[in-house]
Amino acid sequence: MASEQTAAATEDLPEGEAPDKATVRKAVAASSIGNCIEWFDFGVFSAGVMTTIVGTVFFPPDDGGSAVLRSFALIAAAFVARPFGGMFFGPLGDRIGRKSVLAITIILMSGSTFLIGILPGYDTIGIAAPLALLAVRLVQGFSTGGEYGGAATVIAEYAPTRKRGFFGSFLEFGTLSGYILGAGLVLGVDLVLSDEALHSWGWRIPFLIALPLGLVGLYIRTKLEDTPEFQKMEKAGEVSRSPLRETLVHNWPMILNLIGIVILLNVANYTLLTFMPSYLATNLDISSTTASLITIGVELAMLAVIVPLGSLSDRIGRKPLLLTAAIGFILVSYPAISLMQTQKTLPILLGFGLMGALLVLMLAVIGSTFPAMFPTRVRYGAFAIGYNISTSLFGGTAALVIEKMIKTTGSNYIPAYYLMIAGAIAIVPILMLPETARVPIGKCGHSRKPEERVPV
């Protein structure tokens, strides 16, 4: 096994330049912790009880029951800034290196989440409270726009070719871990504190935890060298002079392909992980505690299988798993949501579990699939731009749009229709996707014409 790993790694790099296994593990940990912090924030924000509290603490009193919509609007607002973060940090990472940019993004992400925990509410500073919260959420979105593409790129460029699926799956292992940690912490605070204490100060505790998490992540990242692929590109004098222009001019077809796949990924991701807890509590009259336990339980199951699925993709390819997920969401979403309408715990758990099983098929392979769609020179920027445009338009707005459509139509089946449409859209770009499971990362991606090469 060790000899296979070494051989796989050296397919990309000259002998002696391939990273050892300890360095690869450190790179995976440094990348995954940023995703963990990002989704820790979502886990906190979307927990049933927290969704209501945030909507009431930072906004004027309202008897119209719009606290949940306000919180979903805040979640969506952060996504407005994500494409701008991707356009800024992504090409910057292609120009100066992945390591430096990821150090900046993790500071901004954890720091802004921490700030939410110390912001005064509407009762203290009036209309300045929601405006300050909005500003912080925009900073979160801007920094997150540069985080995910860089973290995925680091893992892909460090991982041995034959185990890129295995190592890449740890990126979304961080996603699920962060969500479980955030939602679990909110649940714990809710169970321990009185309702009065929770609403007055206890809700701040989960947000404050983000800062020490970020400092740990920053420490790990500062101990890591830049990726072997980027260092090789630097030595060869192949760093692009204008990575943003090069990305948009020569790589837009594959960016469009990425956007199409990410529509399903993020509609499923944000529907299940940020909308469903509130959906169960608000629309199906399930207690917030039960809704949180169901969500956490399904995610723990996803956590248990995501790495084996990533390893499976190294053997059978990424496309079979992605296609299974897309077709599955078309066929299974309606029956799964129907099970939830029984308002009984076991059918709800089964329906949620069916959709979670489809989602984890995608989560297991995107960390190894998406970076391999682009050449090294523009990998960070192309990934970050395409991913964040799609996420901003379709992922971040999913909870808000679905909740609004449910209120407008009175139908609790809106989540199923939304997922089915997203699955149908994703099938075409998945079929067009080149299979890169056994292709060295340095040979992945394509460009429509040779670009200029400049000394660095």
Features:
globular, Growth Hormone, Chain: A, 21 helices, 78% helix, single chain, 456 residues, mainly alpha, disordered C terminus
Largest sheet: none
Q: Helix/strand/pairing class, anyone?
A: mainly alpha
- Estimated radius of gyration: 21 Å
Q: What coarse outline follows from CA principal-axis ratios?
A: globular
Low-confidence stretches: 1-12, 447-456
Give the ordered list of helices and strands.
Answer: HHHHHHHHHHHHHHHHHHHHH
> How many E-type strands?
0
CATH architectural name: Up-down Bundle
Task: Give the overall pLDDT as a whole number.
Answer: 86
Summed up, the helix count is 21
Task: Tell me the CATH topology.
Answer: Growth Hormone, Chain: A
C-alpha termini separation = 37 Å
Number of domains: 1
Q: Just give the CATH class.
A: Mainly Alpha
The CATH homologous superfamily is called: MFS general substrate transporter like domains
Work out the helicity level. Answer: over 70%
Beta content? under 5%
What is the compact description of this entry?
With 456 residues, this protein is mainly α.
Commentary on this structure:
The protein is an all-alpha fold. It has one domain (21-443): Growth Hormone, Chain: A (Up-down Bundle), CATH 1.20.1250. The protein is 78% helix and 0% strand. It contains 21 helices and no strands. It has helices at 2-10, 21-46, 48-57, 67-80, 82-96, 98-116, 122-125, 128-158, 164-192, 195-202, 204-208, 210-222, 228-235, 243-250, 252-282, 288-316, 319-340, 345-369, 379-395, 398-409, 414-432. Helix 2 (21-46) packs parallel to helix 6 and helix 5 runs parallel beside helix 8. The radius of gyration is 21 Å and the shape is globular. 57% of the residues are buried.
